[in-house]
Write a structure and sequence with these properties.
about 5% helix, 8-stranded parallel beta sheet
């Protein structure tokens, strides 16, 4: 969104607990704004190395619409990182890689992403945390919203598992996992 000064920002709603109904019925939705200059805006032509370098520099990530051929793993390692897909960018792994992992850190937000299995079997399409991970915080959970998985269908796709959650305190909101075997 554009603020009153004409600057672009990304609004991140706060976690709600013990609630029901809309978040805006009692006034503005609670949350925080992140200036757009704190994001790397990726295009399908950007390499995974370029994306990982931006994440390592502490930037959040916006993936613009398109098909991303992922030849190595996109690694989200920093707490409170936002990965936002616009127009449901599609991540397709090549050579059986895991397209994205999220470290066992707090407060990561993934939204608006489609993982589409590639022709070579991947063990998993999205992995959150490592086995036996317990560094989470219920006050700052990791959130996956509008994250979709497709194995097979329009094209040949192979993956053993769509989504693996190893971390505690992960909220799943509107997850769609489709397998055409």
């Amino acid at each position: 969104y554009m603020d009153s000064r004409g600057s672009y920002n990304v609004f991140v709603p706060s976690v709600r607990t013990n609630s029901s109904g809309t978040s805006w019925s009692g006034g503005p939705t609670a949350g925080s704004s992140i200036p757009i200059n704190q994001f790397f805006i990726a295009r399908p032509t950007d390499s995974v190395q370029t994306i990982n370098n931006a994440l390592a520099r502490g930037l959040n990530l916006i993936l613009t619409p398109g098909i991303y051929q992922v030849d190595s793993t996109i690694k989200v390692k920093r707490p409170d990182t936002v990965v936002l897909g616009l127009g449901f960018p599609t991540l397709v792994p090549s050579a059986g890689v895991i397209p994205m992992t999220v470290a066992d850190v707090t407060g990561v937000k993934l939204a608006g992403l489609l993982f589409d299995a590639g022709a070579v079997n991947s063990p998993v399409l999205l992995q959150v945390g490592t086995p036996h991970a317990h560094k989470s915080d219920p006050a700052n959970p990791t959130t996956l919203s509008d994250v979709f998985f497709r194995i097979g269908g329009a094209t040949l796709g192979k993956a053993t598992t769509s989504l693996v959650i190893n971390s505690d305190n992960v909220i799943l909101d509107d997850i769609w996992a489709w397998r055409a075997d």
